[in-house]
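can u pls check wat happens w/ nicotinamide-adenine-dinucleotide
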Amino acid sequence: MAYNLLKGKKGIIFGALDEKSIAWKVALKAKEEGAEFTLTNAPIALRMGVINQLAESCGAEIIPADATSLEDLENLFTKSMEILGGKIDFVLHSIGMSPNVRKNKAYGDLNYDWFLKTLDISGLSFHKVMQVAEKMDAMNEWGSILALSYIAAQRTFPDYSDMAQAKAVLESIARSYGYRFAKSKNVRVNTISQSPTKTTAGTGVGGFDAFFDYADKMSPLGNASSEDCANYIITMFSDFTRMVTMQNLMHDGGFSSSGITEDLIEELRK
Ligand SMILES: NC(=O)c1ccc[n+]([C@@H]2O[C@H](COP(=O)([O-])OP(=O)(O)OC[C@H]3O[C@@H](n4cnc5c(N)ncnc54)[C@H](O)[C@@H]3O)[C@@H](O)[C@H]2O)c1
């Protein structure tokens, strides 16, 4: 059921790779709720072509942008404002990639050039998106900017490797830029810390199936699905959350507040 929560709002959605992507689900929901938006991803990801199906069903245009390139981001905001006919109300940063994780490098044997790439793609790009938006005065008053994070920013999950540092940077940027954007434009900036989710980025982390099941048993409500995540994100883009800013919001079925659960005890006793 749709509630027209985003009627009249204009946005930019980063990171829809295929139909499993969290950003893909957000795009479908945002459309359902009355938003107009552009879709963007790294040129290399667009070559797969799957995103065209999403663009068609949402009536959205695709603008290629490597989120680490200021030039690409400037072009993205310029074109988005042209296409949508005005400034932007919401931005979703749904981007993550670590060459060290992808190539199975042990945490004690990281390639530092790749580490810097991880930080740039998965952390700094969030700052770049906001700096470009601010310099171009591309955001509307009371806009909402969101990025997706993971609890490995606060607690150690060995296979998450250097992505843990990238998420810590991401969450810190949300606080620092959230302060700045609140003062200048009443724009709110938050991160949502999502349960493990079966997507390309998620399943690329070693031991994913085991920690997916562990998290499911450790969460009184179970793992939050990507559909649930999309619903939460829509509320964060709506006018019902205008005073929420500079937060890392846990969307994890209760995982982060649980010490142990009966489900897990039962599993361990087996
Ligand atoms: N899947 C999980 O378990 C999980 C849990 C918590 C948080 N997250 C976060 O959710 C976000 C979305 O990931 P997902 O799970 O939907 O996986 P996904 O693989 O579908 O999405 C990741 C996206 O990042 C894009 N990307 C990579 N490098 C880029 C670049 N240089 N410029 C622009 N885009 C680039 C990819 O093309 C892809 O579309 C990520 O930030 C991820 O860390 C995922």
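Residues 10-269 form a domain with the Rossmann fold fold (CATH 3.40.50.720).
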